[in-house]
Design a protein that fits this description.
Blueprint lengths: L1 E3 L8 E2 L3 E5 L2 E5 L6 H4 L2 H7 L6 E7 L2 E8 L5 E7 L2 E8 L1 E8 L5 E6 L6 E8 L4 E3 L6 E6 L1 H4 L10 H9 L2 E6 L8 H9 L4 E5 L2 H6 L7 H15 L5 E4 L5 H4 L9 H17 L5 E4 L1 H4 L16 H17 L3
Helix pairs in contact: 4-11, 5-7, 7-9
């Protein structure tokens, strides 16, 4: 039997910014682990240990393939195995599990998407002796940063989050920095984005800031500007797409504890991005979140904050052309 773990075969595992060895396995990180000590954000780093967007991808000629992981999410989330772009297996992963997929004769593109919420440790992917597993050619590297809406833990499977849908449609290499409740322009997130080799970046900014009252009228514009300018300084030439918040009717005109409504934050995100464009950043782009998910989509927003799985599908469909235009 041949085993392929992230430490010995990193070219077969995508979506983590770093892998570190743990007992009998590998922890994939979605933030730089060395920043944790100085982030002072336990919940953020707990989310950074989840495997949203992390996956095994290879061209495989074998009778079967399996993956062994330990998934600690509550509630438990599934593993999705896609064969030649189609969902072949979806199995809930709770604790230490092995998920197996039988394959037909010939070479197949196999993607194993790990659970999109809850800490996950990878033990290995395995095939029989004599099978062939080949890394795929490099693709456009896309990093997206955002909140629970970007992590999309409410999607029915990890291949059905809106970033996963867009990445699969465009055949891009996704790194998903979506953190439930934790998109607060943290320095750890900026440092991670700066240290990651990417070709395209998207930033979905605002909803957690409104929900938690992270900044007020005085402090938010400067924080938004500094964050976007920091991303630009680290990646001087690549396209950056800023996405303002999608709709949340109860928050649109209701001030939070810092005095900011969601519509006001959306206006700030728009102004900061436009000001930076006017100052000469021609590779910076903006999309209004209400065009991505707005009044017409409220039936797919059951808690007035998070889309359901169909809603994440809508977001993926609508954002894909905006992303495609960045490298057209």
């Amino acid at each position: 039997m041949q085993a392929f773990d992230p430490g010995t075969h990193p070219d077969l595992w995508q979506g983590a910014v770093r892998w570190t060895p743990v007992e009998d396995g590998w922890q994939g990180w979605r933030l730089l682990p060395e920043e944790e000590q100085f982030a002072y954000a336990e919940a953020l780093y707990q989310s950074a240990r989840s495997a949203a967007g992390i996956r095994f991808v290879a061209d495989v000629t074998a009778d079967w393939i399996e993956v062994e992981i330990t998934a600690l999410g509550d509630p438990a989330k599934p593993v999705d195995i896609l064969v030649d772009g189609e969902l072949a297996t979806r199995e809930i992963a709770a604790g230490r599990v092995t998920v197996r997929q039988e394959l037909t004769e010939g070479s197949h593109r196999v993607e194993i998407w790990l659970p999109h919420a809850g800490p996950t440790v990878v033990h290995a992917a395995r095939v029989a002796d004599g099978a062939t597993v080949t890394a795929i050619a490099p693709r456009t590297r896309w990093l997206t940063y955002g909140s629970s809406i970007t992590q999309a833990s409410g999607a029915d499977g990890p291949s059905l989050t809106w970033p996963s849908i867009a990445a699969r449609t465009l055949d891009w290499d996704l790194t998903c920095l979506g953190f439930g409740g934790q998109c607060h322009l943290d320095q750890a997130a900026l440092a991670t984005i700066a240290a990651t080799e990417v070709d395209v970046i998207s930033l979905c900014l605002g909803i957690n800031i409104q929900g938690n009252g992270s900044f007020n009228e005085r402090s938010l514009p400067g924080q938004l500007s500094a964050f976007v300018r920091g991303v630009r300084a680290a990646h001087p030439d690549i396209p950056i797409l800023v996405i303002s918040p999608i709709i949340s009717t109860g928050r649109e005109e209701t001030p939070n504890m810092a005095g900011l409504s969601l519509s006001r934050i959306r206006a700030m995100v728009t102004q900061i991005t436009t000001d930076l464009q006017d100052a000469g950043d021609t590779a910076l782009h903006l999309v209004n979140g209400l065009e991505v998910f707005g009044d017409q989509d409220l039936a797919l927003l059951p808690d007035d904050l998070h889309p359901n799985s169909d809603g994440y599908g809508v977001m993926g469909e609508r954002l894909t052309p905006h992303l495609a235009k960045l490298i057209a």
